[in-house]
Amino acid sequence: MKKYLYIIKTQIIKRLTYAFDVYGNILVQTIIMITSAFFWKALYKDGGTAGGVDVDSMLVYIIMSSVLSVLLITNVEKRIEQSVQKGTVATDMMKPVSLFGIYFAEDIGTIIALILQNILPILLIGSLLIKVPKMADLRDLPIFVLSVLLSFFINWFLAALFGMMAFSAVNIDALIQVKKHLIRLVSGSIIPLWFFPDPIANVLKFLPFPYIYQLPLSIYIGRGTRAEIFTGMEIQLAWAVVLFLVFLFAQKQITRKVMVQGG
Amino acid sequence: MIDVVNLCKDYTLKRKEPGLKGAFKGLVNPGIEKIHAVADLSFHIDAGEIVGFIGPNGAGKSTTIKMMSGILTPSSGSVLINGADITKHRKEVVRNIGVVFGQRTQLNWDLRLGESFELLKHIYQIDQKDYDRTIDELDSILGIKEIINQPVRQMSLGQRVKGDLVASMLHSPKVLFLDEPTIGLDVSSKYALRKFIKEINKLRQTTVILTTHDLGDIQELCERLIIINHGVMMEDGNLSEIVDRIAPYKTLVVEFYDEKAPEANFCEMIEHSGNIAKYKFMKKDTTAADIIADLSKRQTIKDVSIEEAGIDDIIKIAYGH
Question: φ and ψ at B99, to 5 degrees?
Answer without folding.
Answer: -130, 135
